[in-house]
Amino acid sequence: MKLSMWTYEGPPHVGAMRIAASMDRVHLVLHAPQGDTYADLLFTMIERRPSRPPVTYTTFQARDLAASTAEIFQTACRDAVARYRPDALLVGASCTAELLQDDPGGLARIMDLGVPVVPLELPSYQKKESWGAAETFYRIVRAMAAGRSRPAEIAPNSCNILGPTALGFRNRDDVTEITELLRKNGIDVRVVAPLGASPADLARLPDAAFNVSLYPEISDLTARWLQKTHGMPFTRSIPIGVRATHEFLAEARALAGLDDAAAAAVAGEEGERLGWYSRSVDSTYLTNKRVFIFGDATHAIAAARIASQEMGLRVCGLGSHMREFARDLREAAAGYGLEALISDDHLEVERAIVEAGPELILGTQMERHIAKRLRVPCAVISAPAHVQDYPARYSPQMGFEGANVIFDSWVHPLMMGLEEHLLQMFRNDFEFNDAASASHLAAIKPVEAQPATTPSEPAPAAQSARVPWTGEAERELGKIPFFVRGKARRNTEIFAASRGIHPITVETLYDAKAHFAR
Amino acid sequence: MGALEAIAREPSAPLRQRGQHEVFCGLTSIIWLHRKLQDAFFLVVGSRTCAHLIQSAAGVMIFSEPRFATAIMEERDLAGMADMHDELDRVVEELLTRRPDIRLLVLVGSCPSEVIKLDLARAATRLDRRFAPGRHVIAYSGSGIETTFTQGEDNFLASLVAAESLRDASEKPVSLLIVGCLADVVEDQLSRLLRDMGITDFAFLPGRSGRKVPAIGPETRFALAQAYLGATAAALESRGACRIDAIFPLGEEGTTAWLSAIAAAFGVTRDRFDAVTQAPRQRARNAMTHYRPWLEGRRIFLFPDSQMEPSLARYLSRELGADIVEVGSPYLHRDHMAGELALLPAGITVSEGQDVDRQIDRCRAADPDLIVCGLGLANPFEAEGRRTKWSIEFAFTPIQGYEQAGDLAELFARPLMRGAMLAGLAPRAEGAAP
Questions:
Q1: B contact residues 26-45, partner A, Cβ 8 Å cutoff
Q2: Can you tell me the distance from the alpha carbon of B20 to that of B24, in angstroms, rounded to the nearest whole number?
Q3: Residues on chain B touching A62 (C-beta within 8 angstroms)
Q4: Mean of the per-residue pLDDT values of chain A
Q5: In DSSP terms, which residues pair with A318 in a beta bridge?
């Protein structure tokens, strides 16, 4: 038994729903009690999907347990096929039905439903949502493409894109971006799956030369199976960030048998602005800003690389809630001299953030809330995300346009933080305080002077090992801009503790500053 | 299809269908219960699905550590490798160590815990003894195989009533108990009205603290402020308390009828009752007037959600002049709902339970002006160019009493006003069903 306040991932059957909701002409019958229908609103509310996910829940009740829940399941299957006429029927059980051991797969198979039935094993008490999505995608691809033989003639520059799903982070726009980028570089995308694919499209997967595995959390299992069964190679690099996009295109071009010389001039690169924006002098203030990164493995690892190599930030924490990808995370974190945080306990993540004292947090919806509490700027880089992270505008994370979007969306919260600092710095200024009217509106005086509000200083991130400060030292610390104040406080306290200084004076503050200025 | 069903039925018999229920389970009640009882903590004993449900329904609002959590059962618990009760004790210990502010710990049963017959009542008794006297532990079931949405609150209140450890035996039973979770502001308004009528010995269930439950005895009379409290009423009656029968306090008419039943039970004179309620009644009527033009003559279809649907339909039809096409409820309590159903105009389809696909068919065929439904259905209906009102809001928003009668009307009118404002915009979302 595990105590959990909030979870990064839902149960595996929600992963199965994500695959069903991504696809056309597929229906999922889920053996589940009422209440499990809550998952519909993830799709209709968070992603603003205009239709209900193609899922039928058996919604059995306590009084059915004494009779036959299996019969209820079979009726639900028959009704779903008659009403929705899918080309393939997925069947599975949620956590409660798993305990009943009705065997939905076996029941559906003997029913002669007239459509291919794909039974799903979704062990709710061991696995989670991403695993369920990957497994479901693999099962349905296997069901549709196992018996297929590859055509004699295959265009070497043809590929499929594997992995984008409903409720994925910016998947819709990533697919548009990467499809177009590949096309400009002479590569033809045949099937995108599961997002927008039908069962018939899955049967065509072996007709392409290779696969692009865009979201390994979802597509790795399937890409490996297609390689083993049909000899289709697949791409390993994930095109998030400028360098990674170049690597990805080089890898794809190599698989497509396109010559290397042409790759020197990558088509689509002309729209890339992250490089210049990052070099431009106003970005200097980004240098070595401490950034804490947490999310799914793919987005977290990519974000760390962009942060350190393309935006000049310092990665002070890197982690993921996905144990399945712990090895990749650890490897990446070691490159920044860090130990990866592998945890699905948001309280542990919060502790690690407080400990690291970042100036920017890149994370999921959970870290956004942690950042709000700690008053640290934050950008969301990975699911789970909330409704505002499914924007109306085109905003991919992948490819060159994705890099542009990333630059903007990380810098924006930092700029907001900076503006807040300036407002605080000038809060006692004779013409900028709340009581003074704006100088260009001098003709209109405020009716009643308001007392100048003094917003409280953001809580220092690290509360541990507190050495007392003299009043004078505290006041001196207050003169340091807020975005480095936390670091100054932390460094000074470490310095004081290591030398047994008690209390901290103005002298100590500057001694510590000199000590750490290396 | 819908018309044929309607003709084939007795006019008074509700339409009952067995099929997919598109409603939350009882665990969802925790979202408002934990806000109401500020020293209580709700620990669901369940699966990852339970944890995911609550946080999804709550909209991932984690600006502070919430006072609810899930003890997620894992493979080794189910395989018998770990003793469930030992595991639960360990999790509770961990939780209470971290949250010393918790005075009432509520163990909440779920579908999986019910299916494996984990006896949480026994666990609560054991833990209650262990953490006494500073802390109390009770249990109830919010499982989806037994409860829908608001029935979770019903089971919780019933367990509060039954809990011996939360009662002071020496205390005199309260004369009047107002039952059902209400917003603090609504409680304050109702309290003022009752006191002005000369009724002073009353209490609310739940109160703002979970530590103490008012004494209940044969001299206690209780009024239900919420429509979904069958189990709680039974628990109160088993302690000798007597229910004051009334329709529910929604709208001016509902609030007046509800207060007047209480006043009659406590011997308040008609003059005094009128003097106390006259001004707020007029205010309520005035507030509703603004929205009546938006709702009068509009055809409204209510999907089942919170069991408040018959009361809402009565309010819409009698106070705002709306035409009700169908009113669905997950469950119809014969006695508690009799007054509401009697006030509904003849010819309305009343449905109990749900087969959501067939109900959607009926709704599309009826083509109403406004659909009251859950969050899973609202956007898909909007994408078809229909106007909807999310029903979950009725459980979270203060809507009871005189001062909220206008707010309640506004909740229904807003989607229609918005529809009129956005009339020039294409209603169909990309990829919407035709």
A1: 26-28, 45
A2: 12
A3: 114, 143, 145-146
A4: 90
A5: A293
Query: How far, CA to CA in Å, does A403 sit from each of A70, A253, A311, A398, B202?
Result: 51, 20, 11, 7, 63
C-alpha–C-alpha distance, residues B106 and B131, integer Å: 13
Average pLDDT, chain B: 92
Domains located in chain B, CATH noted? 2-21+287-421 (3.40.50.1980), 26-147 (3.40.50.1980), 176-286 (3.40.50.1980)
Residues A162 and A211: their CA atoms lie apart, in Å, by 7
Looking at residue B434, its pLDDT comes to: 42
| CB within 8 Å: B49 and A95 | yes
What does the CA dihedral B106, B107, B109, B114 come to, rounded to 10 degrees? Answer: -140
| 3-class state of residue A360 by DSSP | strand
Is the Cβ pair B430, A7 closer than 8 Å?
no
Distance from CA of A329 to the nearest CA of B (A): 24
Kind plus residue range of the DSSP H or E element containing B388: strand B388-390
Which residues have CB under 8 Å from A5's CB, separation 6+? Answer: A346, A347, B62, B65, B66, B69
The dotted CATH code for A462-516 is 1.10.8.550
Question: For residue range B268-306, what is the model confidence (pLDDT) as tens digits?
Answer: 999 999 999 999 999 999 999 999 999 999 999 999 999
- Hey, where are the domains in chain A? 12-144, 158-271, 274-422, 462-516
Instruction: Mark which residues 331-360 of B lie under 8 Å from A by CB.
Output: 357
Domain A274-422 CATH (choose: 3.90.1170.20, 3.80.30.20, 3.40.50.1980, 3.40.50.2300): 3.40.50.1980
pTM comes to: 0.90
Asked if the domains A12-144 and A462-516 are classified in one and the same CATH topology, the answer is: no
Yes or no, beta carbons of A37 and B376 under 8 Å apart: yes
DSSP state letter for A147: T
Based on the residue annotation, tell me whether A282 is a catalytic residue of this protein.
yes
CA distance linking residue A504 with residue A512, whole number of Å: 10
* Cis status, amide bond into A194, omega within 30 of 0: yes
CATH of A12-144, one of 3.30.420.480, 3.40.50.620, 3.40.50.1980, 3.30.300.20: 3.40.50.1980
- Arithmetic mean of pLDDT, A22-40: 95
Give helix A242-255 / helix A171-184 axis angle, nearest 10°: 60
The residue of A4, A195, A373 whose CB has the most chain B CBs within 10 angstroms, and thus the best one to mutate to test that interface, is A4
Choice among A282, A296, A345, A429 that is catalytic: A282
ipTM of the complex: 0.92
Asked if A90 reaches chain B (Cβ–Cβ under 8 Å), the answer is no
Three-state DSSP state, A213 = strand
Can you give the C-alpha Rg of chain B in angstroms? Answer: 22
- At A56, is the secondary structure helix, strand, or coil? strand
3-state secondary structure at position A153: coil
**Contact in structure between B107 and A39 (CB atoms under 8 Å):** no
The per-residue pLDDT for B95 is 93
**Of the partner residues A3, A51, A58, the one whose CB lies closest to the CB of residue B383:** A51
Tokens of B326: 């169908």
Q: Is A206 left (phi over 0), alpha (psi -120 to 50) or beta?
A: alpha
Q: Which of A35, A346, A372 sits opposite B25 (nearest CB)?
A: A35
Instruction: State the helix-helix crossing angle for B230-238 and B151-162, rounded to 10 degrees.
Output: 10
- What are the pLDDT digits (tens) for A185-210? 999 999 999 999 999 999 999 999 99
Sheet holding B299-302, edge to edge: B15-18, B349-354, B323-329, B299-302, B370-373, B388-390
Cβ neighbours of B145 in A, within 8 Å? 33-34, 60-62, 65, 96
Fold for the domain defined by A158-271? Rossmann fold (3.40.50)
